[in-house]
Amino acid sequence: MSKIDLTDSLEKIPVKIFSSPQEGSVFVANEIASLIRAKEAAGKPCVIGLATGSTPKTMYAELVRMHREEGLSFKNVITFNLDQYYPMHKDALQSYHYFMRKNLFEQTDINPDNYHLPDGMVPKDQIKEHCLAYEKQIEAAGGLDLQILGIGVNGHIGFNEPGSGIYTKTRLINLDNSTRLANAYEFGNMSQVPRMAITMGISTILKSKSIILMAWGQNKAPVIQKAIEEDDTEDVPASLLQNHDDCLFVVDESAAGELTRFKSPWLTGECTWTDTVMKHAVVNLSLKLQKPILSLTNNDYNDNGLSDLLVEKGDAYAINLQVFYLLRDSITGWPGGKPTEQRSSHPERHDPFPKNVLLFSPHPDDDIISMGGTFMRLQDQGHHVHVAYQTSGNIAVTDEFVTRFIDFAVGFENMFDIDDTKSKNILDEAIEFLQHKKTSEKDTDTIRAIKGLIRRCEARATCKYVGLVEDHVHFMNLPFYETGTIEKNPLSRADIQQTIDLLNTLQPHQVYCAGDFADPHGTHKVCFDVILAALKEIKASNAEWIKDCWVWLYKGAWQEWDIAEIEMAVPLSPDQVIRKRNGIFIHQSQKDTVPFQGSDDREFWQRAEERNSNTAKIYARLGLTQYAAMEAFVRWKF
Ligand code: F6R
């Protein structure tokens, strides 16, 4: 593996940062391919330790592409996977055996005798023996040449949960609750996630001649920072990789975001003091010292590694004022621009008024959850607001919920003696399917259609509540989503074309979309990529309207922007908070429990309220006016 210089003294493991998970994945696939070819040329087998999960999927796809298009052969490759749930049959949809067969093994020429995974069905009293044999098999193959790793948000590698020591070997372990929650998306609900797993130990991993750990997305950023920059500790098992001398972390920009060289570049060497860097530094300083920005002193700057900024800008008060104004000017109750006031510091243009506004919502409730207050303000302030629901969101409706609607339909027919054979057949077939549905079984087209209809009705009701007219509501049902499983199709021409057509028809002055780069394989990211591809094509076609179109990003239900990143903060009054809450409540199918909830068990309205009130509180702590809540946006200059 090519060695990389450590950028500065704070980083204890070399890290290579890519602008996207795709580019990082191609890099790792190339490293693996070079190793396979080098070993083949030397007449030796290539022994690789493999990981599963969402992180390595694109890398496996690239290896498969290299096999098909560039003749990369796996005949000489022997693999050992890190782990397997326990108990878990190797053919179960969630088994890592199934994952590997589908994503790599069955798509290449690897000899089936050459791939190994821990057996998730080995009887309990034989587990120790099985684990020992696994270690012996690795040794007999000549030891691992390269180990590929992902990382859990709690710092686990393989399933070595916090507390796993440096001498641990392959063994049965209990999964952390946080891991079970994080992986719940692969299962129908949390109770179906196994409680145990067999995993290679830390010592097994450290024995590998080289190691590459991959991580994508903002939610991995805090643990990546800990593993790379802080002291090694069993509490963050990935930090134990600091003890290996040929280990490389391959991450995307979002996962690298908490490293000191990005988060506080002034602490790691020379730094160019742009407005953005200065805003970050001063906001961090104010929050750290719990002092409003306008109260920060020269000493505060000097004592916290910001003397360089003082030298450049003169004195604390000048810096304080500059950052205070930047924050103040981001606040507006007029997200579509204030028609009566022409102010260059306002986040939006006052002209034209009213604006054509197109709000893209990945799922049928992201609009109201993530920017409900702004949505209502835009409508109330007289803009021509349209909403485009990008996907049907049908997999997030429970079987119990759809059954209630089917019962209603049957009752309705009976009550009014409706004798329609087609409708009866559809309902009978739906009832029959639901009665015998197996855990994690894919829904029939009919059930998916009914679930989609339920969500459509909820979205339509929300739009009515906000005041939109019927023809301003667009249901796109983008094809990439319609697989009936958590696993989606790749983005296609049809998705992009549909988006281009809608944009060209509406010619919006403002586009709002979910800017979630955190989950590289999630629906929000694909929805964003579709819009981006569509906008780029329209721009290339020189359409006149696009020259006057601004794109604003909001964050989905899971995260919020860093305070210093926010370019438009829209305050909500206490009454608007309640109005927004009631708007979210309309999505009854998403209340209480939903399938694939992820690692946060709060309801969506709670997440939204806590997040919006938190943003308002942070603005107040920085010394700005205290609002009840705030929604936040960042402008995307494509
Ligand atoms: C998978 C494994 C785990 C994952 C980690 C990250 O074989 O051992 O350590 O690498 O949980 O999972 P994802 O990639 O889904 O975020």
Overall average pLDDT? 93
The outline comes out as globular
Number of strands: 17
How far from one another are the termini? 36 Å
Tell me the number of structural domains.
3
> Can you name the CATH architecture of the largest domain?
3-Layer(aba) Sandwich
Weakly predicted, low-confidence segments: none
Query: What oligomeric state best describes the polypeptide chains here?
Result: single chain
Number of helices: 20
Structural notes for this entry:
It contains 20 helices and 17 strands. By secondary structure, it is an alpha/beta fold. It has 3 domains: 15-259, Rossmann fold (3-Layer(aba) Sandwich), CATH 3.40.50.1360; 274-330; 356-396 and 440-636, Rossmann fold (3-Layer(aba) Sandwich). The chain has a 7-stranded parallel β-sheet with strand order 1-10-9-6-2-3-5, with helices on both faces. Helix 1 crosses helix 2 (57-70), helix 9 packs across helix 12 and helix 17 (493-506) crosses helix 18 (523-540). The protein is globular. The chain starts with 14 loop residues before the first strand and ends with a strand. Fructose -6-phosphate binds at residues 51-55, 82-83, 150-152, 156-159. Fructose -6-phosphate (F6R) binds next to loops.
Summary?
With 638 residues, the chain is an alpha/beta fold. Helices cover 40% and strands 13% of the residues. The protein contains 20 helices and 17 strands.
How do the helices and strands line up, and which of them pair or pack?
Layout: E1 15-18, H1 21-41, E2 46-50, H2 57-70, E3 77-81, E4 83-86, H3 96-103, E5 115-116, H4 127-140, E6 146-149, E7 171-174, H5 177-182, E8 196-199, H6 202-206, E9 210-215, H7 221-229, E10 247-252, H8 260-263, H9 275-289, H10 298-303, H11 307-313, H12 316-330, E11 356-361, H13 366-380, E12 384-389, H14 399-415, H15 421-436, H16 445-466, E13 473-475, H17 493-506, E14 510-514, H18 523-540, E15 550-554, E16 568-572, H19 574-585, H20 604-621, E17 629-636
Parallel strand pairs: 1-10, 2-3, 2-6, 3-5, 6-9, 9-10, 11-12, 11-14, 12-13, 14-15
Antiparallel strand pairs: 4-8, 7-8, 15-17, 16-17
Helix pairs in contact: 1-2, 9-12, 13-19, 14-15, 17-18
The structure holds fructose -6-phosphate.
The site of fructose -6-phosphate (F6R) has 14 residues, from loops.
